[in-house]
Design a protein that fits this description.
With about 150 residues, the chain is mainly alpha-helical. It has 5 helices and no strands. About 10% of the residues have low confidence.
Length: about 150
């Protein structure tokens, strides 16, 4: 059975150890790329957008918070999800569940860390909008990856 190019009991839960460890490394590389991208994009957002344009008057309205905080955050999350997706190499990206796990881990982990660190300052609007931003950004990044993958 080894002459067929795969392990003899693939369907019974016995995986190829080299392929499984390679899959974990591919996922770790995708996560690392996503975290670096999210960190750099967030730094640029805070340094050049938020500190330059945000003022107390602008942040009092929902529209101001939406334009200066939530939409830029969604772009950062979408970029990080897309980079994670692109960094998740083949043949592991062909498995939909593993690929989704590689893509969505960075935004979800960043959201959990954000909530844990700022739990004492979270308002209902902030909680709902940050969750909406993470979902919208992560799904957008994944969708862009799938669209680009379909063009190949």
């Amino acid at each position: 059975m080894r002459g067929t190019g795969g392990p003899p009991y693939r369907g019974a839960g016995y995986g190829d150890t080299a392929q499984e460890s390679g899959g974990l490394m591919a996922m770790a590389a995708a996560w690392a790329a996503g975290f670096v991208t999210l960190g750099v994009a967030s730094y640029l957002q805070v340094t050049y957008l938020y500190e330059t344009l945000a003022s107390t008057e602008r942040l009092e309205s929902f529209g101001g918070r939406l334009l200066l905080i939530h939409l830029p955050n969604a772009l950062c999350v979408a970029l990080a999800a897309w980079v994670s997706a692109r960094a998740h190499r083949e043949p592991f990206r062909d498995l939909p569940v593993r690929h989704a796990f590689a893509v969505f881990t960075v935004p979800v982990f960043a959201q959990v860390i954000n909530l844990v660190l700022r739990w004492d300052r979270v308002s209902l609007e902030g909680l709902l909008m940050s969750c909406a931003v993470v979902v919208a950004g992560a799904v957008t990044g994944y969708a862009v990856d799938r669209i680009r993958e379909g063009e190949r």
